[in-house]
Specification:
Layout (H helix, E strand, L loop, with lengths): L4 H20 L3 E6 L5 E5 H11 L7 H13 L7 H6 L4 H12 L5 H8 L4 H38 L8 H25 L10
Antiparallel strand pairs: 1-2
Helix pairs in contact: 1-3, 1-5, 1-7, 2-3, 2-7, 7-8
């Protein structure tokens, strides 16, 4: 069955999330405190994992799932560097797939315009950190919206099934569609103009 445009976009967004994990999985986004008041770092990998778990979502492609699982498992190790870890992984096939994934680059031009006039390494680091933080945040929101749109499309398609004759089943599907639509509207308020168009979407 040929993927729909929505599914193509969903696949590209998931791939871009996996790319960010391979390249920057250990990078700090911000710090939080646990229940005992101990401060801990929320990294790119742990942020993506937590955000997806909050909405009971998960990555669909086995390669991407494995990348996220392994990045989260090592995220709190002081010497962990995601890019080095994945491209030199002992599993040669996995390492090759990660290397190919990381080589497909895209840029957010506004950040590169800002960095072009900077010479201080610390200023460049801060702009780069802002780019990573904003990109990950946008990708997660876009991915959630794409998943919901795809699920809503599948629900509407199920209503066209000639075998669907039970009014209660029809009502159940419509209720599920409405619930997802309400969640989508809530997330879209966050999404706003923060939309990343996947390459070749």
């Amino acid at each position: 069955q040929t993927p729909t445009a929505e599914q193509n976009i969903l696949g590209k967004l998931e791939e871009m999330l996996a790319q960010m994990i391979v390249r920057y999985g250990e990078r700090e986004l911000y710090t939080e405190e646990d229940e005992e008041g101990n401060e801990y770092v929320v990294s790119v990998a742990t942020y993506i994992q937590a955000e997806l778990a909050n909405d009971e979502l998960e990555l669909q492609v086995p390669l991407h799932k494995r990348i996220l699982v392994e990045a989260v498992a090592h995220a709190r190790e002081p010497e962990f560097q995601a890019h080095r870890y994945f491209i030199s992984h002992s599993d040669a096939a996995f390492s090759h797939a990660c290397t190919e994934l990381a080589s497909n680059r895209y840029q957010l031009s506004k950040y590169h315009e800002r960095m072009s006039g900077l010479s201080n390494p610390e200023d460049i680091r801060k702009v780069k950190q802002a780019e990573i933080s904003d990109t990950v945040g946008m990708l997660v929101i876009n991915y959630k919206c794409a998943v919901l749109r795809d699920e809503m499309r599948k629900l509407l398609r199920s209503l066209q099934d000639p075998a669907l004759s039970d009014p209660n089943q029809y009502l159940t599907i419509m209720t599920a569609w409405k619930e997802k639509h309400e969640v989508l509207q809530f997330i879209e308020k966050k999404e706003g103009d923060r939309v990343i168009l996947p390459p070749n979407a």
